[in-house]
Amino acid sequence: MLRYIAIRRNNTVKSKLHPRASVILCSHHNHFFRRSTHSTASLSTAKFTMLSLPSTPPPKSKILVFGAGNFGSCLADHLGNSDHEVFMWSREARFVEYFNKHHRNPDYLKDHEFSANIRVVGPEIPSKAMMKQMDVLLFAIPTQGVRETLIKLQYSFDRANLPLMIFVNKGIETGTHALTLEIIADTCGSEIARAATFISGPSFATEIVRRQPTSVSVASLTESQAKKASEIFHQPWFRCYTGSDPIGLELAGALKNVYAIATGLADGLGFENNTRAGLITRGLAEMTRIGTAYGASPLTFLGLAGVGDLFLTCSSPTSRNYTVGYRLGKGEPLEDIIKTLGSVAEGVTTVKGLKKIIDEMQVSAPLANGIYALLYEGKDLHEGIQELMCRPPSRELDLPEKAGEPAKRLMQKLGLDT
Question: Is 316 exposed, middle or buried (0-12, 13-18, 19+ CB in 10 A)?
């Protein structure tokens, strides 16, 4: 019996596809799709629409999303369309009023009408009474603001009945070079950090709101929490795969932004496909080496949060970090790019914390070091490329012999020292 049926709607742009329609049924976990491929189809307009709910729908949750930017609002929309009751916090009064009146985001995804199951709250920090009613707290704010936000919220947590806490930011804190897992431990304590869950993977907001099939990694040190988060987010068009390496997931999500700057830079300079493919592949090798030295599993970097997100971010002009690199390659000053970008490019700040990690672990990372030198040490672009390409031949794949000290220290902080 079909429990899920979805239609891919096609309109507007014509293509040269044969005018016959095909039907594809996918039965994994009793989820089924119907997809039509008429001649008027455009992949850019493909959209999966739920026509019927499961006969036994999963429990619905009350979810509070911190962050009303591009990614926060797209995830709020996804959760609202999944029939959860969603509250989205914004620090701007004009945003709160506009969204609740029009159900549109005035700053991001402006053409999209958001789910009616979303209500925006703010600009004041949500009260303890409201927080106590929530089943899930979803943090979609830039990494550099996580510590400040958690400090404000920590006294509102009901520690006897903690909500599921999910983090989707990607970056390394400057100054402390801490991962979000460590920031949570510092501000909220080891118990909350051990239960925290992280989501990452190739997931552009513009495609999520159009229900383009998307797959992500969900990781936590507490397996049951990762499973809960996966069940809340999982839909036929939004697949979730669980894991137990949040450190690797965080590092992969943060580091890929740095390599996206490198590939954008190469494209901006006029280099072509060979160069981009080489940069993506060597970036994967480098981030795996850094992650393994830190104490993450090298397998994590072969998953959605690693090579999946790396490929997406390094190959799409809609990537903010790629755009920064591309404009640098065209000769624009970094300061002007940041002022006019319109949203946060995490790679620009992440590389600061990454540089400290690389130096501390003494791991080979020529690409990351090169991006840091270009952004913060005034390195001449063409001189940097010359130095990078004129290095002597080296072994293609290698992992550090001594690995894991940063992760061991973090595990001790979390009370998980073995």
Answer: middle
Are 57 and 83 a contacting pair, CB within 8 Å?
A: yes
Q: Which residues belong to the active site?
A: 256
pLDDT in tens, 176-217: 999 999 999 999 999 999 999 999 999 999 999 999 999 999
First to last CA, the chain: 48
Question: CA 298 to CA 301: how far, in whole Å?
Answer: 6
Structure tokens at 100: 């609740």
Give percent above pLDDT 90 in the chain: 79
* Two tokens, residue 376: 């913060």
Q: Label residue 271 exposed, middle or buried (CB < 10 Å: 0-12, 13-18, 19+).
A: middle
- Cβ proximity of 200 and 253 under 8 Å: yes
Predicted confidence band of residue 2 (pLDDT cuts 50, 70, 90): very low
- Stretch (H or E) spanning 88: strand 85-89
| Rg, C-alpha atoms of the chain | 22
